[in-house]
Structures are given as structure tokens and as C-alpha cells.
Design goal:
single chain, alpha+beta, Jelly Rolls, eight-stranded mixed sheet, 7 helices
Length: about 270
């Protein structure tokens, strides 16, 4: 259970950092399971790549139909211009998503133990729905940047209700691409929506074209086991990983089932 001070900090800053939320056995279970899934994965002839501008450049069917599947997305630098891998398969994956929370027994068990909906309810979600999960690798030397964004851009409800839960499976610092956030930036209007386009693929709908708040990003350097809870309108970012260490993390997003989930959100799920 969150304390009144923790809830106050979340409402003030737009994020909450909770140390030692996930134990070593749970972290190892997720990382070992991810390794098994990748070992069993046979890369298709057409690779779905998570790039710096992934939301603008990825609108292939493999990506768009992943809301109720377990799928694998590659680091941009893991594949050369001829389509050949530059690193071993285990080091090529940017993320696994987006429904292992509902489909994989190991992920389901650990997520049940972590019980994110309890925190979601304390932060205002009346009827939590576990909508999207991702195992994020931030591979050594090639782990890509994720640009400044707000999660509600991608998981839009009316009224907005998205909350992200990001757990560090390994230490995260400036060297390997830790999260960075604009503290208090959740008061910023939602800038845009990423949605299905009427003529196929995806597009951004601009909602507010004012600049981001004129303040620096705060580093969220954390030890393995830490949970960071992110308000859906909080602007946050992670730099490329130029170190020799990975920065594995697991994230899950909740939305409120009492709110209307947009029919043209890119992520659609029957689960």
C-alpha cells in the first residue's frame, strides 16, 4: 500500500520511485523467460524494427496486430542495410511485447505477485485493466534512444487514465540509458495522439503544438528491483545505451475500464 506521502509525491512530480519492489527471484524469472522466448523465436524474413522514431516509422501489420500477441522487435543497429544481423540473436532484440502479461505463464505469475492494480487504484484508477506489457532490453552499445513522449499519446482514453509501471530488472544509470523525466511535467497538455489512420497504417494527431516545458530532464538512476510509476501525461525519455551493459526493464500499462478506450488507438486487443 502506498503512503499518503507517496501519493502526494506522485501527484506533485508525475512519477513515483519505489525501491526494492521486485525481488531478485522475480527479476531472474522474467529475464530467464525472456531468454527462452528469444531462443525459441525464429526471425521472419521481414524484420520489425523498433527505431528512434518507431511510432512514426513502424506501421507494419506485425507491429499493429501485436496488442494480443507476444512479438519481438529488433534494435535498429542490430540489422545492416542488407538485412543481415550485426549481433547474435539474443543481443538483437529491442523489446518483447505487447501481451505477455496475459499469455505467458511466467510473466502472468510474476505480474500477479507484483499486483500493480492495487497501486493503480490508490492513484485514482477505479477499474484497472492491464493493457500493454513490454520487456525492454536496451542492448549493450546499440540500445536505441526513446524520444521524449507521453504514454497517453499511445494509450488514449476519455478521460485520460493511463499509468505506466516500469521495473528495473538491472541497474539503470546515465551510462546505459536510464529513464529521464520532466518533473511536474504531467501538468503539460497531451501533445498528440498516435492512432490508426483512416487509409491504413498510423498517424499522429496534433492536440497541442506549444513547446515542451522549458526545464531540464531529471535523471531517474535506479538500482535493480526499483519500480517507477509514471503518470500518462508525464514527458519522459531515455538516451541510447552506449555502454557495454544492458539495461533490462519490464513495463506494464494500466488504463481505467470505466473510461472510453479510443477505437482508433494503435493498440487493439481482444484479451
Amino acid at each position: 500500500m502506498l503512503t499518503a506521502k507517496q501519493i502526494e509525491n506522485f501527484e506533485k512530480n508525475g512519477y513515483l520511485v519505489i525501491k526494492d519492489y521486485i525481488n531478485k527471484d522475480q527479476r531472474d524469472a522474467l529475464m530467464n523467460r525472456a531468454k527462452e522466448l528469444i531462443d525459441d523465436f525464429e526471425p521472419p524474413s521481414s524484420h520489425s524494427v523498433f527505431t528512434t522514431n518507431e511510432q512514426e516509422r513502424t506501421s507494419d501489420e506485425y507491429f499493429l496486430s501485436s496488442g494480443d500477441q507476444i512479438r519481438f522487435f529488433f534494435e535498429e543497429k542490430a540489422i545492416d542495410k542488407n538485412g543481415n544481423f550485426t549481433v547474435p540473436k539474443q543481443q538483437s532484440i529491442n523489446k518483447i511485447g505487447h501481451a505477455q502479461h496475459a499469455l505467458d505463464p511466467v510473466y502472468k505469475q510474476v505480474i500477479k505477485e507484483l499486483n500493480f492494480p492495487v497501486i493503480g487504484k490508490q492513484l485514482g484508477i477505479k477499474d484497472p485493466r492491464q493493457l500493454q506489457s513490454m520487456h525492454i532490453f536496451k542492448q549493450p552499445s546499440i540500445g536505441g534512444e526513446v524520444g521524449l513522449h507521453q504514454d497517453s499519446t499511445f494509450l488514449y482514453t476519455t478521460p485520460m487514465s493511463c499509468i505506466g509501471f516500469w521495473v528495473a530488472l538491472e541497474d539503470a544509470n546515465i551510462e546505459n540509458g536510464c529513464l529521464q523525466a520532466i518533473t511536474g511535467g504531467h501538468s503539460t497538455p497531451l501533445k498528440k495522439r498516435f492512432k490508426l489512420a483512416a487509409d491504413g497504417g498510423t498517424e499522429f494527431e496534433i492536440l497541442d503544438d506549444s513547446p515542451w516545458p522549458d526545464q531540464s530532464l531529471d535523471l531517474l538512476e535506479v538500482k535493480a528491483g526499483t519500480l517507477i510509476v509514471l503518470h500518462g501525461q508525464l514527458p519522459h525519455y531515455s538516451a541510447a545505451n552506449t555502454s557495454k551493459r544492458s539495461r533490462q526493464a519490464f513495463s506494464l500499462h494500466l488504463v481505467d475500464q470505466n473510461c472510453q478506450y479510443a477505437k482508433d488507438n494503435w493498440l487493439q486487443s481482444s484479451i
